[in-house]
Amino acid sequence: MSETSEMLEQALASIFTRSGLGPAQRGAIWPGDVWSAVEAGGFTYFDLDEGDIGLEEIVGVATCVGRHAVPIPLVETTGLVSWLFARSGLDRPEGLTLSAVAHPLDDLRTEPLPGGDVEISGTLHRVPWGRRADHLVAVADVRGTARTVLLPRPAEVRTGENLAGEPRDTVLFDRVRVPSAAISESAGPSPSELRARGVLLRAASAAGAMERVLAMVLAYADTREQFGKPIRTFQAVQHHLVDVAEAAAGAMLAVRAAVLADPGQRLLAAASAAVTAKEDTRKLNRSAHQVLGAIGVTDEHELPAFTTRLWSWQGEFGTSRDWSIFIGRAALNKSLPSLWSLISATEGTQVGSPLGEVVPW
Fold first, then answer.
1. Residue 154 exposed, middle or buried by CB count within 10 Å (0-12, 13-18, 19+)
2. Considering only CA atoms, which of 142, 151, 138 is closest in space to residue 185?
3. 195 and 120 in one domain?
4. Judgement on whether residues 133 and 279 belong to the same structural domain of the protein
5. Domain containing 81 — which CATH number?
6. Averaged over 255-259, what is the pLDDT?
7. pLDDT in tens, 291-323
8. What is this structure's pTM?
9. Is residue 87 part of a domain?
10. Same domain, 244 and 123
11. What is the pLDDT of residues 4-56, one digit of tens each?
12. Which of 38, 108, 244, 258 could bond to 122 as cystine, CB 3.0-4.6 Å?
C-alpha cells in the first residue's frame, strides 16, 4: 500500500468512525453529516491529472467505503467522476456531479445542432444517487464516436433502490441541449472501459465489506456461548468461519492483483477480481448468517448492512456471468501465443476490449 493510499484510508476511516455509523445510519439514503465531513476534507473529487492519486489510492477509498458500509456516493465521485473528467478534459461544475454507469439498457441519443452543440434524449438506468445530482457525466455516441458528455440536472427521475436501500435511479432526458463545451473533444473512454473500472471499484468495496464481516463473525463466535463454551469451539461453526475467512482473503487478493497488474493485463485482472468477489459473496454471506443465526437478520444488528450491499453489488457493472464469459473468450483468443502467456502475464501480452487494447487506468 502506498503512503498516500494509507493516509487516505486512515483519514476517511476516522471520519466514518467519528460519525458513529450504526445500523440505522447505514440504512439512511443520505447521511448529510457524513457527506459534509467528507466534502470538507476534500475527499469527494480528486484531480487525477496531478499524479498523486492513482488507481491504488482510488481502490483504497472504495475499500474503506465498503468496510464501513457508508451510504454516500464517494466511490462514484472519486473513482468514476474524477476519472471521466481527467480523461475528457472537461471542467467539473459546481455542485454534486455524479456518473452514469453504462448500463446495457441505457438509450442516450444525440442529434447534432449547429455550432457543435447536440440535443440529447433518452434514458440512463440504475444511476447511483441520481435524484441528488446537480449534473451527470456519461458516455454517449456523438457523431459516431464515444464522447464524455456533461449533462444538466435530469428533468425526470424515477427513483429506485437496491437491496441495501442505496438509491439506484432511472433518469430521463428529453431534447436537452448540451453545449459543445460540455462535450469532450477527444474520444473515450468507451462504455466497456467505464464498466470495467466500475466493477473493479465495486469489487474493492466488496472486499472491504467482507473484511468487516469476518471481524464481526469472529467476535460473535468468541463471545456467544452454547452448552457452556464459545460456539467457535464447535466444528460446524469453525467450518463456517473458515469459509468467511477464505472468501474475504480471496476477494482482497484479487483486487490487489488487479491494482498491481500491468496496463495490458488490467482489464483481465479487473474481470477476475469481479468474478472472485461475486462468487465469494455467496459463500461469505451464507456462512456469516449461519454463524450469527437469527440475530444476524434483525434491523438492530450491523450484519445486514454489509451482506445486503454485497448482494446488491453483484449485479452492478456486469454480472458474474458477463465477466466469466469475457475471461473465457480471452482464454480462447487465437492471437495469443499460449494460454500460459495469458495466465502468467507474459510481457507484451495485452488483454483489452477488444483484445489488444490497453485500458488507461
1. buried
2. 142
3. no
4. no
5. 2.40.110.10
6. 94
7. 999 999 998 899 999 999 999 999 899 999 999
8. 0.92
9. yes
10. no
11. 889 999 999 999 998 877 776 777 778 888 999 999 999 999 998 777 789 99
12. 108
Q: 152-161, 166-175, 218-227, 344-353: lowest mean pLDDT where?
A: 344-353
Place of cell 484531480: 47
